[in-house]
Backbone:
C-alpha cells in the first residue's frame, strides 16, 4: 500500500514535534533577544552630524507645514464668516 500524507506521523516525526514543544519559554525568549541583538549589530547607524542635520530638516518641515495650515485656516475663516453670522 502507498503512504498516506494525511495519515498519522511516523515515530521520528512525533519525537521531533515533542522535542520542539518541550523548548522552554525562557529559552525561546533568550533566543529572541539573542537574535535581536545580532540583528542590531548589522545596523549601520547614522553619524551624529547626520542626525543633527535630519533633525533640523524635520523641524523646518514641521514649521513650514504648520505655517501653511495656519494661513489656509485663516483664509477659510475669512471666506466662510459671511455664511455663519454670529448675531
Residues:
Amino acid at each position: 500500500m502507498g503512504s498516506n500524507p494525511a495519515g498519522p506521523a511516523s515515530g521520528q516525526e512525533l519525537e521531533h514535534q515533542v522535542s520542539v514543544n518541550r523548548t522552554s519559554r525562557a529559552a525561546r525568549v533568550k533566543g529572541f533577544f539573542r537574535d535581536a541583538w545580532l540583528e542590531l549589530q548589522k545596523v549601520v547607524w547614522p553619524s551624529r552630524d547626520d542626525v543633527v542635520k535630519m533633525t533640523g530638516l524635520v523641524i523646518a518641515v514641521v514649521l513650514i507645514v504648520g505655517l501653511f495650515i495656519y494661513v489656509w485656516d485663516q483664509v477659510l475663516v475669512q471666506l466662510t464668516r459671511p455664511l455663519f453670522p454670529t448675531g
